[in-house]
Structures are given as C-alpha cells and as structure tokens.
Design goal:
With 238 residues, this protein is mainly β. The protein has no helices and 22 strands.
Amino acid sequence: MSNTVIHTAQSRGHANHGWLNSYHSFSFAGYYNPQRLHFGALRVLNDDEVAAGMGFGTHPHDNMEIISIPLEGDLLHKDNMGNSTVIKYGDVQLMSAGTGITHSEYNKNNDRPVKFLQIWIIPNQRNVSPRYDQMSLDPNDRHNTLQQIISPNKNDAGLWLHQNAWFHLSKLEKNVTLTYNLKDKNNGVYLFVLSGGLMANGQTLNTRDGFGIWNTDALILEATLETELLIMEVPMLN
C-alpha cells in the first residue's frame, strides 16, 4: 500500500520581503511546520520571485546539494570558487556545498523580476569538495515525455549530485497520460506542478501543488490541462 502526502499551493509557507516574494513547501527561515520538515532527502523547495535589480547577498552553505531552476528572467550567480554565471529559463544549476561555499544570487535585470525554484537535497556524503555545475536544456525535449535533468551518475543525462536522486521535467498536452517508473524501490517521488492540472495516481493537482508518494513502483500522470511539472525522486530517509 502506497503512502501519500499533498501540499496544496495555498498551504505553503509564505514570506514577502518586498524585494523577495517566496513560498516554502517545507520549513525554511521564519516558516516552521513540524509536519513539513522534509520529504525524504528533499529538504527545501522554495518558489522565489526576486524584484528587478535585487537579490541575495553573499552567504554561506555547507553539506547540501543546492539546485536552482529558473522559470522566468535571468539570475546572476557569483561564488568563492570563481564562478560568475547567468542562468535563465531552460538552464539548471547545481552546487555541491560540501565543506563550504559562499555565493550571491541577483536578478540581472533592472526592468523585470526573476522567478526560480531553489531546492536543497540532503547529500549521502558529507564534507565533499565543493563543486559548481550548470547546463542548458532544450525545453522541447520534455514535450509529452520525461526530460532527465539530474541523477546520481556522472555519465548520465543532466547534472549529477551526491545522492541517489533523479529529477525530471515534463510538459504535457491536455489528456496525455505518462508513467514515471521509480529507479529505486526504496525511494519516494515528490511531484511539483509548475502550471496546469493533472491527476497523479488518482490525486487531483493544480498549479504549484506538491504531491509526495512512496512505497510505490510508479506514478501515473494524466494531464487534465496543458501542464508543466517537476518530478523529484529521492531516498526516504529515516
């Protein structure tokens, strides 16, 4: 028998700092919910909008796999490893913080906001050497299919991280059905709906809803609208 949890868009934590409007699927900063500390190795899922010209000043991280997925606009990244890059829609960025990094993130543009997902994954190795990686993806490669963007394997499609986790993006036309088969039976899947609406193993989901499921082999996705979604398969930590 599978186990499930649903986090509706409206139930998320919310912080509006003026320059930053952020929704938290899990406990983060000033938002604390003991029922929503993490989903397995998925520790943070923040849905951020940063105002024109604004951003996060230099700050530290350690022992976390940090993924940024831009949804709109351009995000300027700088870190103490010497990287100065811009990520935009279609790109994915990954940092293994390991023994420690410092970085900043700013909206590159002065005339429009930047919107992106910031995701933290608890690693399966501590104190690794810090590492930065990013890549550009073709959004057409997720049309009515699964586009792998992250895996544990250096030689596999997408970026790699220090955890037995796989991420996929998909954009489904209305009435298309797709099956996601778990890579590891000990993992769970957390589905985040970027836009649209669908049924996931019988559960109705809408824009910005999150749905977690474990003790299952597969996730059956039935798009009720044109839908874009992120699928995160992660170990279910004790």
